[in-house]
UniProtKB/TrEMBL annotation:
The lineage of its organism: Eukaryota, Viridiplantae, Streptophyta, Embryophyta, Tracheophyta. This is Serine/threonine-protein phosphatase. SMART domains: PP2Ac (SM00156). InterPro entries: Calcineurin-like_PHP, Metallo-depent_PP-like, PPA2-like, Ser/Thr-sp_prot-phosphatase. One of its GO terms (molecular function) is protein serine/threonine phosphatase activity. Its EC number is 3.1.3.16. Coiled coil: none annotated. Gene3D superfamilies: 3.60.21.10.
Amino acid sequence: MCRQPVKSPVTICGDIHGQFHDLVELFRIGGKCPDTNYLFMGDYVDRGYYSVETVSLLVALKVRHPHRITILRGNHESRQITQVYGFYDECLRKYGNANVWKIFTDLFDYFPLTALVESEIFCLHGGLSPSIENLDSVRSLDRVQEVPHEGPMCDLLWSDPDDRCGWGISPRGAGYTFGQDISEQFNHTNNLKLVARAHQLVMEGYNWAHEQKVV
């Protein structure tokens, strides 16, 4: 499924990026799984030095407690991106070959792209897409593939909210920027209260956008 149903209460978490000790601290503060229900919105690897340990722990928890932890795909759960930003090199350094990298990147193809909390909070890594008007369009996507360079799957993993109305060209070179009018229309069409996403560094921990239509 591209749309993973999740029950509340749930602790929703953004990018980890190989910071294994931060992940351990997150569980210390938020509660251990399965005592606490967790939803992670992607980008477990790259940048940090402990991508292997980070993604291994999350996948192990998913296997052990499948109904108490949800792990979505981020734009860094990609063969191409991980060869540039560190995960590939980390696997070579730790194991002497690319076998572990290949196993994990094959697994990433099966991660869900989005999740829906109590049919009200739409969770994903990046943002909205001009090709997707409703949740049925998300469900119909063929997600079991490498992240494409364009199209709706790419947009869900790469797009960002913006202060300007409508759709805009993303400075990232992939996905789009989308304005408050887009968020409001999407939420209204799909009977949603909120879009929750990650993908951008927020020093305060979280940040409201579009008059609390997006977080």
